[in-house]
C-alpha cells in the first residue's frame, strides 16, 4: 500500500492512500471519491429475550455518518473566506515550487505544476462556495489544505489533494 503524506509539513500528515480509488486531474491534483460510512454502532445479540419490564429500554444507537477519507486520515475541518484562501494558496504554491526545486524535479514537471496549479486554483476560486476545507491531523498552517466537493449528482463526495505537495510512502 502507498500512503501519500504532506511534503510541506515534513510528512507529519497522511492525506490519502492508494486503497482509495483516485485519479489524476489536469496533471496537478488527485481526486478521490469518498463515501459516507457509519461508525460507532455496535449491535450485540446475546440470544436472550428482554424481560417485559425492560422491553422498552432499548439502548440508544450511537452510530455516526462520516466521510471515509476524512475519518480515515483524521482530517480537521477548517474554514476560509475567498480572500484568505487565495492568500493561503499563493503562499502554499510558493512552498510546493520550492519543494520541487529542492528535490531536483525536472524543469518540465515544474512547468506542468506552474501552469496546472494556476488553472486549477482559478477553478476552485471560481466555485469557492462549493468547497469544504480540511487540514491534516497536525493542523499545521503551512501544510496542504485538502478540498472536498460533491460530484454533479450532488450526493457523491470527493476530495482533491495537490499531487506535487505529496510524498509517497510504501507500507
UniProtKB/TrEMBL annotation:
GO molecular function list: calcium ion binding
GO CC terms: cytoplasm
Domain TCTP positions: 1-171
Source organism, top-level taxon: Eukaryota
Pfam family, one: TCTP
Alphabetical list of SUPFAM superfamilies matching this protein: Mss4-like
InterPro entries found in the cross-reference section: Mss4-like_sf, Mss4/transl-control_tumour, TCTP, Translation_control_tumour_CS, Translational_control_tumour_p
Signal peptide (UniProt feature, chain positions): none
The protein, known as: Translationally-controlled tumor protein homolog
Family: Belongs to the TCTP family.
